[in-house]
Amino acid sequence: MGSMGKLWLLALVVLFSTLSLLLSANAKQTYIVHMNHNSKPQTHATQRDWYQSLTSSSDSILYTYTTAFHGFAAYLDPEEAESLRKKDAVLNVFEDRIYSVQTTQIEQAAGDVIVAVLDTGVWPESKSFDDTGLPEIPKRWKGKCISARDFDGKRHCNKKLIGARYFQRAHNKNVYASKDVASPRDYDGHGTHCASTIAGSPVANVSFFGYGKGTARGVAIRARVAIYKICWSQGCHGADILAGVEGYFRCGKPAPYHEDPTAIAAFSAIQYGIFVSCAAGNSGPIKSTVSNVAPWIMSVGAGSIDRDFPAYILLGNKQLFKGVSLYTGPRMGNKLVGLVYNKGKNSSSNFCLDGTLEPALVRGKVVICDIGIIGYEEKGLVVRKAGGVGMIQVNFLAVKEMSAHSHLLPTVEVGYKIGNLIKSYEMTDPNPTVILGFDGTAVNVWPSPMVASFSSRGPSLVTPQILKPDVIAPGVSILAAWSEAVSPSQLEEDKRITKFNIISGTSMACPHASGIVALLKAAYPTWSPSAIKSAIMTSAYNVDNTNSPLRDLAKGASSNPWAYGSGHVDPKKALSPGLIYDISKEDYSKFFCSLHYPHDIIVTFMSHLKLNISCSNKFSDLGDLNYPSFSVLFKNKTSIQYSRELTNVGPVNSMYEVTVTAPSSVQVTVEPAKMVFKKVGEKQRYTVTFNNKKNKEAAVGAVFGWIVWSNAQYKVSSPVAFTWT
């Protein structure tokens, strides 16, 4: 890490979903080898020399990792990989995986805070990366701006965009006939969108073809940006991701922490004071789909904002329904046209897949299409190819649709409640007709925020005693900078070019939360990553702008902490949290020992903390970690007791009293019920006892509650999830 560890550096890690690698049993592929670096023989001068001696050919090594992750990536056949697994100094060997971005880190006045974005690159000409008014680059910054045939490091980098690199060795080894350009430049749009959301400079009077017009700005407008391009047209290889971690970061799907290279690297990062935040995933509303669940990573889900893009559906029977759309082309006019659903050549025509629609039945009509299998905008191309003139898209996973898309055909998107009514009309009316209308941008929408239907849900499958996700942040229909090398829909048939685009996903939410981290890091440069996360979590809110509990777009009813964690982020309150839950290195040591991993794995995890790891001291329950939220898993227990430590970061002589909200099935007792902090930085502990009042037969499902420490000025809130199975 060197001098980089002295900077206020935040690593943004945006979630990927794993894609299978279709390889023959004996085909060579990339493997990631996790090494016990302390076992290097003295006969080898460097780690790389040692690693090369372990492989049959020095040319097979793609990268060596010596900072946040110790080991190497190599292009090997399965037999050689298996042979490496048997060596004493080898902790683990992972098959490289391909990840995809989920479309779903502070300010000193933040000038000394650097945000590392590992994604698809950057469009440097965007005004969001203008450096006007920024002070000189911190002299401690040792990063690089790499030039390429389409990227001039000296010209394109400035006092805002201070670093740009790319990593593609694993991509090049595994993908043939690739059209990708070896460069930090963004040919996808996702990386530019994320980077500008976190730290983009203000750009006035922008919109997406008239939608969302206003000033686009990042959360931490004076933070610097360093770009690490690790994702290419065919996805993001794990070996390239770890190379980005070396120089910075990404996240992935749940796996035991000692088998997850990202969790390992992320833990190394926080030991250097680097905050790591990740998208929680776009697999909602299915239970236990949340990703990036390590307690040292902030997992961010997505919520809606108080703005949408209304569009309307007028049926021939005079029924009027509201949906959303970002359609930018010619309108349909005022004449009703035919309406059809599931009129095609096979049973999957309701999904409007290529070749499934019958032109004779679709021509000149609006087609109802269910979401899934192919992209939202791509379905419009299928309808247009079959002769359709418009589309109604039904999200069967959401009672209400708020994630608008940039369609090429007149399209209105709705949830399943409205969708079912429209389908019923189409099936029962002898001559169903419709007209679609579009109404631009609406603000002050209520209720908001709501949990996005696509946002992945808890509980965690790895450590269910740690409540995940941690928070939600704005992630639905977010306007930010875009690459001018790709259309807004990313379809080849789409010839539109835009400087700003509107997209949705938890990887739109993660940059918002990361921007708040940037502000906190600038305000409190000595705070640990866990202290910053605590401030964000305990200050989050769980009511909407109608003062009702946060609702879920998937079902329309009240949501719960498995969907929103501690609640929706609140930047202003996070800057003044009153109390924080910090996690010491000794706490993490007990946590790892309680996971019962092999001792050499634990020692490697904790190597930067310079502790004597004996594992003589463990948690009796993983939920005893000093985390800002609670997840109580009773199983066959009748009582569980946790201890927590609070640190005063508010005024001296502050008194707090506890308020408990608990379901009838659980008795919750907190001792003491009142705490007085006489000094800033003073620490005090409390214990909380959870008594199970359910009988064995009824002990199913999940219920939720809250533990809140408050006074007239502060409210420090912790959600509690209770489960029995």
Automatic annotation (TrEMBL):
Pfam families according to UniProt: fn3_6 (PF17766), Inhibitor_I9 (PF05922), PA (PF02225), Peptidase_S8 (PF00082)
Domain of life: Eukaryota
Domain PA residue range list: 340-421
Keyword field: Hydrolase, Protease, Secreted, Serine protease, Signal
Domain Inhibitor I9: 30-101
Active site: 119, 190, 507
Domain Peptidase S8/S53: 112-546
Family matches, as InterPro entries: PA_domain, Peptidase_S8/S53_dom, Peptidase_S8/S53_dom_sf, Peptidase_S8_His-AS, Peptidase_S8_Ser-AS, Peptidase_S8_subtilisin-rel, Peptidases_S8_3, S8pro/Inhibitor_I9
Subcellular location: Secreted
Limits of the Subtilisin-like protease fibronectin type-III domain: 624-721
Protein name: Subtilisin-like protease
Organism placement in taxonomy: Eukaryota, Viridiplantae, Streptophyta, Embryophyta, Tracheophyta
